[in-house]
Amino acid sequence: MGVPLVTLVTLAGERSSSRGGASILTSLGRPDWIARSPEDYIAIAQRLAADG
């Protein structure tokens, strides 16, 4: 209903799910969607929301 949803950005970390997400995004050619910190995650999400 018009609410932005960030689903493809991942926060790189120690857990297998975050490593898997980073691997998938790299394979898709989107390493720029991999956040290295919570602040980076927010910045990426804001950039993507402003782009759409």
Question: Which features would summarize this protein structure in a list?
Answer:
mainly alpha, globular, 2 strands, 8% strand, 52 residues, two-stranded parallel sheet
Describe the protein's architecture and organization.
The protein is mainly alpha-helical. The chain is built from two helices and two strands; from the N terminus they run βαβα. It has helices at about 15-25, 40-50; strands spanning about 10, 35. Strands 1-2 form a two-stranded parallel ribbon. It is globular, with a radius of gyration of 11 Å. The model has no long low-confidence stretch (mean pLDDT about 85).
**What is the spatial order of strands in the main beta sheet?**
1-2
| Mass-distribution shape | globular
Strand content: 5-15%
**Average pLDDT metric:** 83
Distance between the termini: 15 Å
Radius of gyration: 11 Å
Oligomeric state, counting identical vs distinct chains: single chain
Number of strands: 2
Number of helix segments? 2
Main sheet attributes: strand count, strand direction, barrel closure:
2 strands, parallel
The tally of domains stands at 1
- The helix-strand sequence is EHEH
**Share of residues in helices:** 40-55%
SSE topology sketch:
Blueprint: E1 10-11, H1 16-27, E2 34-35, H2 38-51
Parallel strand pairs: 1-2
Summarize this, please?
The protein is mostly helical and 52 residues long. It contains two helices and two strands. The protein is globular.
